[in-house]
Write a structure and sequence with these properties.
The structure holds two protein chains of two kinds. By secondary structure, chain A is mostly helical. Chain A has helices at about 5-20, 30-40, 45-60, 65-105, 110-135, 140-155, 160-175. Chain A is globular. Chain B folds into three domains: about 1-130, no CATH class; about 135-160; about 165-205. Helices cover about 75% and strands about 0% of the residues of chain B. Chain B has helices spanning about 10-20, 35-45, 50-60, 70-80, 85-130, 130-160, 165-180, 185-205. Classes of the chains: A mainly alpha, B mainly alpha.
């Protein structure tokens, strides 16, 4: 941990900016968070980032909670609070005003256009997130097998995430032996 | 998403006969600040790996604060706004019922409990994070989460590729390569590709 006002300011500024680029949900921003927190700032190792991602998946609630873990890792409880507020604040304010105005724009042409334009962007971002998570530290043939197995199963059958995680945790554990 | 049947459990004919045709449905109740907070806290704590399904069950089926159509419209709107979809959903719904305070109550309900929980988990991880057993289990979980994301991508991509559009798949591919493989900064990539994608969608309309 390396607290201090400078670090807190950097956390707040970075995540407030990032929050406005997280199109299609919190997981879209995972590669960018990895780039900045691991490669640029060296706040976490690749392994710690992958662990944080896994812990966020295991915590009930929105997936965006991964930013809380990153903030906690960098600057303790204050860091966790600052980072979470920075990530939730700007989109929240935006949503507040757009939500109020949206009744008047229902069915407008730009609505259809924007929807068509953003679907491929969201698909690309989600695929990138899966790749970045899958290629971080500690990932071998067992990890690859789990990723592909889960992807195929979830594509054809409805799988509750907790079941997938439980089986994967056991398989990961068995890879130890 | 299911069809437009409003209330599965209610015996329809007598009730609808008793109401004038244009009467507001029972969804027009105005939940209090406390009710908003509790509803979103419950949704949040029961939602693993995404909260969409739980929020729909709570808002449409249990509390009947929204009709299925209202839920779909509101949720589609949330996808356009940056940030976590469900967070935006809580803000918009809170505002619709109780203004700015409603937004705060709903968002606090959504984020508060997992925030506390994840900090406890982080503290535990700080103590035991180096254990090989825990490390391997977390790697397994991260691998599975990556797999779930790939399945979501495949499901979302299917209609895109079937639509016969060339630009859509190309844009998805460009995003994937620049962010996922080359690991370029997200704001830079989006600043170039999103306007291009909007322009293409506008022309094709």
């Amino acid at each position: 941990m390396n607290g201090g006002g400078g670090t807190l300011l950097k956390l707040a500024g970075y995540f407030a900016l990032l929050s406005l680029f997280a199109i299609g949900g919190g997981n879209s921003a995972v590669p960018e968070m990895h780039r900045f927190a691991v490669d640029v700032e060296h706040w976490l190792t690749g392994q710690q980032f992958a662990d944080s991602f896994a812990l966020a998946q295991l915590t009930p609630g929105p997936n965006i909670i991964i930013v809380t873990l990153i903030g906690y890792h960098v600057a303790g409880v204050v860091g966790a609070l600052v980072t979470t507020l920075a990530m939730c604040g700007p989109p929240g304010v935006f949503a507040f005003f757009v939500g109020g105005a949206s009744e008047r724009f229902k069915g407008a042409v730009w609505h259809v256009t924007l929807s068509r334009a953003l679907v491929p962007v969201t698909i690309g971002l989600t695929a990138a997130s899966a790749t970045v998570v899958a290629t971080t530290a500690g990932y071998g043939w067992m990890g690859l097998a789990i990723t592909l197995g889960t992807a195929l199963t979830a594509y054809y059958v409805r799988v509750h995430p907790l079941w997938a995680f439980a089986v994967a945790a056991l398989l990961g554990l068995s890879g130890l032996m | 998403m299911t069809s437009s049947t409003p209330l599965p459990s209610s015996p329809d004919p007598p009730i609808s006969a008793a109401l004038p045709a244009s009467a507001p449905p029972p969804q027009q109740v105005r939940p209090s600040l406390a009710e908003l907070f509790i509803a979103f806290a419950t949704v949040s704590l029961s939602g693993f790996g995404g909260v969409l399904a739980w929020s729909r069950r709570m808002m449409v089926e249990e509390r009947q604060w929204l009709t299925p159509e209202q839920f779909n419209e509101t949720y589609a709107l949330c996808a356009f706004i940056p940030g976590g979809n469900i967070l935006n959903f809580s803000v918009i719904l809170g505002a619709r019922f109780r203004g700015a305070l409603g937004s705060l109550a709903a968002a606090a309900g959504l984020m508060g409990p997992p925030l506390l929980l994840v900090m406890i988990i982080a503290a535990i991880y700080g103590h035991y994070g180096d254990l090989p057993a825990l490390r391997h289990m977390l790697t397994g979980v991260a691998s599975a989460a990556a797999g779930l994301m790939l399945a979501t991508v495949a499901k979302m991509a299917r209609p895109l590729f079937r639509s016969g559009s060339v630009s859509g798949p190309l844009i998805a591919l460009a995003i994937f390569v620049s962010i996922g493989i080359l690991q370029w900064p997200l704001p830079l990539v989006l600043a170039v590709i999103v306007p291009a994608s909007i322009a293409v969608a506008w022309v094709r309309l």
